[in-house]
Amino acid sequence: MSKTVRRNVLITGASSGLGEGMARLFAADGRNLALCARRGDNLESIAAELRSEYPEITVVVRQLDVNDHDAVFRVFDECDAELGGLDRIVANAGLGKGQPIGTGHFHANKQTAETNFIGLLAQCEAAMGIFLRRNAGHLVVVSSMSAMRGMKGNVTTYAASKAAAAHLAEGIRLSVADKPIAVTTLFPGYIESEMTAQAKGKQPMLTDAAQGHRAMVDAIEGEPDNACVPWWPWTPMSLLMQVSPLALLKRLS
Length: 253
What we know:
- The protein is 51% helix and 15% strand.
- The chain is of the alpha/beta class.
- Helix 3 runs parallel beside helix 4 (106-134) and helix 4 (106-134) runs parallel beside helix 5 (156-175).
- It comes from Antrihabitans cavernicola.
- Keywords: Oxidoreductase.
């Protein structure tokens, strides 16, 4: 467990799913929050509930589409100023839509790739700008277990974008290895959310939302370089996926 207490936490994609779940747990632990997402009405409702339940914390809200790159920088800086300094930024916003390559759905796949990588790049640039100026902070990049290998069908572009996310996080980690700045990559398995509810592919070993959110927050608090969440069964599964021949991988995906 890290000895550093990160009091002020920004989370993107915080209006539902994993982002909302993490926000609720951080709030219960007394952390001040900056909640960012495209759906402003959802954010306001969540923020009002958290302020009522935990009156000792500050919760700020910003409607944000991470594909509006200029807005990412502006919003992160505004939240940094409003909370008196961001200690941790969780780059969680992402998109799961996609179709098999070559079936005429380029624009859907392009949107996923742009959101999950270029949108993430903007978040990382903005976050690291804040942390490098302060020489402190914790960047959390939410990747996916699908990043371990290429995936077939509707998940091909999503998996590729999440692999890119993991490599981006690792590169940043190497770049600040001599600084008091932590960079964590989370690899969630199948955790109950709006995205998994809409997914058409296989979802083996689906974890219920409460357990999944707790596993993510516990991993974040430890500030490891990488974490598969929940640890079981996804850490052993990650090792299996990395060495599996294509015939077995086809059955797993």
